[in-house]
Amino acid sequence: MIRNLGNIFKVEDLRRRIFFTLLILVVFRIGSFIPVPNTDPAILQSMMERGGQGVFGLINAFSGGAFRNFSIFAMGIMPYITASIIVQLLTMDVIPAFARWAKEGEVGRRKLAQFTRYFTVVLALIQSVGVAIGFNRVYQGFVLDTSVWSYALIALTLTAGTTFLMWLGEQITDKGIGNGISILIFAGIVANIPMHIGQIYTSFFGKNAQLFIGILKAVGLLLVVVVIIIATIYIQQGVRRIPVQYTKRVVGRKMYGGQSTHIPMKVNAAGVIPVIFALSLMMFPVTIASFWQGHPVADWFIYNFDYTRSPLGAAMYVILIIGFTYFYTFVQINPVQLSDQMKKNGGFIPGIRPGKNTTTYLTRVMNRLTLSGAIFLSLISILPIFFINLAGLPSNVQIGGTSLLIVVGVALETMKTIESQLIKRHYKGFMHK
Questions:
Q1: Which residues cross the membrane (predicted)?
Q2: Which of 30, 95, 207, 407 is at 20 to 30 A from 427, Cα to Cα?
Q3: Range of 286's domain?
Q4: How many independent structural domains does the chain possess?
Q5: Is residue 357 assigned to a domain?
């Protein structure tokens, strides 16, 4: 195993990509400590230490503590994810131009990506102004200079930070390893783990804590974490193989086809993207409501969109996860296109007629698999909250199932990318014996 891991650094291109990714992550961590001008981060840190954070604690968890420090990366990458969701929804024949671009291949994807970037800047600017004004209304003195130019500087700084993070993520995707946006979220969550471990230790073994009870809680929490990791790996690796038979055909003097293969359909083909999408949409109304924090309606939104405290928020969160799981799965795998490709190449599923019957069969299989994956994602994201509350952990410990799910899912996808690069270059991988 160790020897096979060493193969990673024998491939020059792979080695360069890994070092480039690590360099980007170092830049990301440095930016998490550069404060926004004209603000007092100590007030925000004091508020979060007292547990008054809700969904903002999740933003802090995914930004690697940048939100708590109110650094230039305080808004994180969430505005970009929100923009990506909205653009993808608009491609579903909502706006004809977007639907046309989605079908134009690489050229169309570039146009959609360019629009997503511009839309990200707009959303980041709106959220930045909302956070600055909302926090200063509730926590007097947070903004040192309350002039219009001061708020404009804060909003532009936060927007520039999010735009820079978006660019860093794209650089990782192009020149590094794995999906850049997912890697940045992964790095943010992992960066907070040592702090959370310290908070858990203090909660279980503090001055007024009983040693035996603390040990029981620690063992129970460790078991929950291990079960989440094992379940995530098991479901993420689960595949349904649909057999496909290709008919023999003669082209010139050569005979093609005649072989048997299969279509691998994953139980959770969407990965952790639905969870990230759902979180982004849950956070967006809270950020907008922070414009009028202290108003009954705004406070209702802030409380009820916090799935860690509100039953309504938890229900909306589960519904969004299930919906995005179906949406993202069928965006990645189109049964109609898959059926047409099989028919053109002389392929068929044994016992199923090509064409419409094949499309119906593939859709039915995908619906069942996607439902299983969606239920799994929902349970892993929601159930650990009850265990955390049962263990009496502080509310600012954001290492629930959602965070673990993202960490394990991104780690698996990155390892698969490295594995495929090794095998492509005729090196033995490290994920197989």
A1: 18-36, 72-95, 115-136, 148-168, 180-197, 209-235, 269-292, 312-333, 369-391, 397-415
A2: 407
A3: 2-424
A4: 1
A5: yes
